[in-house]
Amino acid sequence: MPMHVIYGGTFDPVHHGHLRLALEVSERLGNVPVNLVPCHIPPHRGETGATAAQRLRLLELAIAGEPCLQIDDRELRREGASYTADTLRQLRNELGADAPLVMVVGTDAFAGFDRWQEWQQIPGLAHIIVVRRPGTALDRESEPARLLAERGVESADALCGQASGRVLELDPPWLDISATGIRERIGGGQSPRYLVPDAVWAEIQRMGLYGACPVNNF
Ligand SMILES: Nc1ncnc2c1ncn2[C@@H]1O[C@H](COP(=O)(O)OP(=O)(O)OP(=O)(O)O)[C@@H](O)[C@H]1O
Ligand SMILES: O=C(O)c1ccc[n+]([C@@H]2O[C@H](COP(=O)([O-])O)[C@@H](O)[C@H]2O)c1
């Protein structure tokens, strides 16, 4: 049964770190499509620099022409905070009980997993792929580390045989790019070129996001 893979984020804005990671995961799972899921109202952080519609537009430009990357905008169509457990429950209902469903997160996000809404329900809904972020280690005594120890598997093949419940760590090259750094750079009048796709930067300027002057910096 084909795997369904989601990779959630605020994507404020999407950058080459996100895109490379999504592609690496897709390839390591046998070129399955990876669905980028922008959150509407992030449950865990302050206001975003761009609106949900603007972040979605940037994502559309970023993945244009890449068959292995798709967008799932279901969280944008839901009212209220975007809880991952709700998203996974919806997907599980749509995919049926037996389809392998996989959620991708970086170690930084996974480190706070036990503060997510209904986090204990999540392994019953999906597998988790944790992508190692250099410099971000899990506290060995923490719930996320325990989950990894109890449910960890060594290879992606182990995710195909069941619908949910396994945790796989992957270690693809991690580009040292953050959306925070990009917003700061733009706000400070510097170009984020080569950190985001050119089409994304052009659209950020056109919309005047993150304090960008609507000029052509290329
Ligand atoms: N450089 C990167 N490479 C790969 N994955 C990343 C990178 N930066 C963040 N991620 C992962 O992408 C997901 C969404 O991250 P998010 O949208 O918060 O990006 P971010 O760059 O960390 O943003 P911010 O700086 O605003 O916190 C998370 O699982 C996070 O671990
Ligand atoms: O469901 C939750 O309570 C929850 C709490 C924190 C983060 N998440 C999800 O984790 C993903 C990565 O978050 P972030 O902050 O790195 O963009 C994104 O899809 C968020 O919706 C989800």
TrEMBL record:
It comes from the Bacteria. It catalyses: nicotinate beta-D-ribonucleotide + ATP + H(+) = deamido-NAD(+) + diphosphate. One of its GO terms (biological process) is NAD+ biosynthetic process. CDD domains: NMNAT. The keyword Nucleotidyltransferase applies. It is an enzyme of class 2 (transferase). Pathway: Cofactor biosynthesis; NAD(+) biosynthesis; deamido-NAD(+) from nicotinate D-ribonucleotide: step 1/1. Its EC number is 2.7.7.18. GO terms for molecular function: ATP binding; nicotinate-nucleotide adenylyltransferase activity. It holds the Pfam family CTP_transf_like. Residues 6-185 form the Cytidyltransferase-like domain. The keyword Transferase applies. Keywords: ATP-binding, NAD, Nucleotide-binding, Nucleotidyltransferase, Pyridine nucleotide biosynthesis, Transferase. InterPro entries: Cyt_trans-like, NadD/NMNAT, Rossmann-like_a/b/a_fold. Catalyzes the reversible adenylation of nicotinate mononucleotide (NaMN) to nicotinic acid adenine dinucleotide (NaAD). Belongs to the NadD family. This is Probable nicotinate-nucleotide adenylyltransferase. It comes from Marinobacter antarcticus. The lineage of its organism: Bacteria, Pseudomonadati, Pseudomonadota, Gammaproteobacteria, Pseudomonadales. The gene is nadD.
